[in-house]
């Protein structure tokens, strides 16, 4: 019964499907000055007046650093099988270099052990935007050296925690750092410099590849891959001009990252558009693309919205939006992007590491939070993911963004993306209706699993809607 609307019959997900939820360090941890943590670019940025809504910062956030045990219990109660979180670089290397800070490592060791104790598989992201400020002071991602510093940090984390983490993700959404951090400037470090932006893109890709090499060098058999937010780009109208504009837009949104990782080349149309004098083009050295395209074990896809591109290269909204004005609710885009990745890049194992929306959640007088919009959104996106799997996409797991309400970057705490409501003044956690719905989806998938040794007709578990 678990995906409970629509005329269609049961949706069967594989027995071992990784039902999950996602978070990131700066957005939930708080404890900004504890146990030797250094400053990150988001500490700096969020303190600049006018940069975040209401001047919000991640100083306290959802206080997860102190409440992680309670949050682990919540995850167990929801029945999660996978938890995707990030490690804060400035907790491990307060200045971005040098010997790791043991107290920072210890926190993640406790978290990871707590996941295993509850039967939840850890999926750890190494970089979810909280660059140590000391590295930003040394030119941040504009400097090629930062990619090498990232590999050193990754190596320290792999050596300390690698035995307990079966899946690593390198860089979360390099595109968002490029676009929001360096083009639009509404994320840290708040720049508006197109020429720097694409050099940053190259260095983020290089950092990813160097981290993959670093993991392999430890002899680990854990899996590793990047986390990309992919946006299907459609022409907004039926004209050759709109088709061409959408194609180039797709280059900047998707192929810049996918092609370099999976084909070992940057897309020619994007390079031509940037021009030979761009800092990015000048910054690509012999051998870089071989590093960037080192074989990966899985590709993490984050899907939120499609983009409709007009003939003049602008964009249009076609579908209902959410509390996030950039989002259009279009579940079919999930199907399109997943099938496209498999078609164009081959049958690489995929995980969805983020999908969700912010809804105007308030706690009712009876203490419940009725987020029907989130249930409908997740139901429709899961159905689209399921159809992609039926069409041959090797999708292993699905992580709702987000487990908890949290610090949504420039939007501060106004947008609520969680399955779990956080009452910030008291830090009390309240399961929203979507959380209990998701719990029943997971539980039904588990209960309909055939007993051990007796596989179902197609070896899969059944979930219906
Ligand atoms: C993604 C980010 C994540 C969160 C969601 C809403 O781009 O990776 O941290 O902000 O959007």
Describe this protein with a few key phrases.
single chain; 465 residues; alpha/beta; eight-stranded parallel barrel; three-stranded mixed β-sheet; 16 helices; 13 strands; 41% helix; globular; disordered C terminus; binds beta-D-fucopyranose; EC 3.2.1.21; carbohydrate metabolism; cellulose degradation; beta-galactosidase activity; glycosidase
Describe the structure.
- With 465 residues, the chain is an alpha/beta fold.
- It has helices spanning 25-28, 41-47, 64-78, 89-92, 102-117, 133-137, 144-161, 174-184, 194-217, 240-262, 268-274, 279-283, 288-292, 332-345, 372-390, 433-447, and strands at 18-22, 82-86, 121-127, 167-172, 223-229, 233-235, 299-302, 307-309, 315-316, 350-354, 395-401, 420-423, 428-431.
- The protein has an 8-stranded parallel beta barrel with strand order 1-2-3-4-5-7-10-11, surrounded by 5 helices.
- Helix 15 links the parallel strand 10 and strand 11.
- Helix 3 runs parallel beside helix 5 (102-117) and helix 7 (144-161) runs parallel beside helix 9.
- Residues 24, 27, 172-173, 176, 229, 354, 401, 408-409, 417 line the site of beta-D-fucopyranose.
């Amino acid at each position: 019964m678990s995906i409970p609307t629509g005329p269609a019959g049961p949706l069967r997900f594989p027995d071992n499907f990784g039902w999950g939820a996602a978070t990131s360090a700066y957005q939930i941890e708080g404890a900004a000055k504890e146990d030797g943590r250094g400053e990150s670019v988001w500490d700096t940025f969020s303190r600049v007046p006018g940069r975040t809504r209401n001047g919000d910062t991640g100083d306290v956030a959802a206080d997860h650093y102190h409440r992680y045990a309670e949050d682990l219990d919540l995850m167990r109660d929801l029945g999660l099988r996978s938890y995707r979180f990030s490690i804060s670089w400035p907790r491990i290397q307060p200045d971005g270099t040098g010997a790791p800070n043991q107290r920072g490592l210890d926190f993640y060791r406790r978290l990871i052990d707590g996941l295993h104790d509850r039967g939840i598989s850890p999926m750890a992201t190494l970089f979810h935007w909280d660059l140590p400020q000391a590295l930003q002071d040394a030119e941040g991602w504009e400097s090629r050296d930062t990619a090498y510093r990232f590999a050193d940090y990754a190596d320290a984390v792999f050596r300390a925690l690698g035995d307990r983490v079966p899946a690593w993700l390198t860089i979360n959404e390099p595109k968002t750092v490029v676009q929001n951090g360096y083009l639009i400037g509404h994320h840290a470090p708040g720049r508006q410099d197109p020429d720097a932006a694409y050099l940053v893109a190259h260095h983020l890709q290089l950092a990813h590849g160097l981290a993959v090499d670093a993991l392999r060098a430890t002899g680990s058999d854990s899996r590793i891959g990047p986390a990309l937010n992919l946006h299907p780009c459609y022409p907004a109208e039926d004209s050759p001009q709109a088709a061409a504009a959408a194609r180039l837009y797709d280059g900047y949104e998707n192929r810049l990252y996918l092609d370099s990782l999976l084909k070992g080349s940057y897309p020619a149309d994007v390079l031509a558009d940037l021009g030979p004098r761009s800092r990015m083009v000048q910054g690509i050295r012999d051998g870089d693309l071989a590093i960037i395209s080192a074989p990966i074990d899985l590709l993490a896809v984050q899907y939120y919205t499609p983009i409709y591109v007009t003939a003049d290269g602008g964009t249009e909204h076609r579908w209902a939006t959410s509390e996030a004005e950039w989002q259009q609710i279009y579940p079919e885009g999930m199907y399109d992007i997943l099938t496209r990745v498999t078609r164009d890049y081959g049958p690489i194992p995929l995980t969805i590491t983020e999908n969700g929306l912010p809804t105007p959640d308030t706690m009712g007088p009876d203490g419940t939070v009725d987020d029907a919009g989130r249930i409908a959104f997740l139901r429709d996106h899961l159905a689209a993911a399921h159809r992609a799997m039926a069409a041959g996409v090797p999708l292993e797991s699905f992580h709702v963004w987000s487990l908890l309400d949290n610090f949504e970057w420039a939007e501060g705490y106004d947008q609520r993306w969680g399955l779990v409501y956080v009452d910030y003044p008291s830090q009390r956690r309240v399961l929203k209706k979507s959380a209990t719905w998701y719990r029943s989806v997971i539980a039904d998938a588990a209960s309909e699993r055939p007993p051990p040794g007796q596989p179902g007709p197609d070896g899969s578990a059944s979930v219906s809607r």
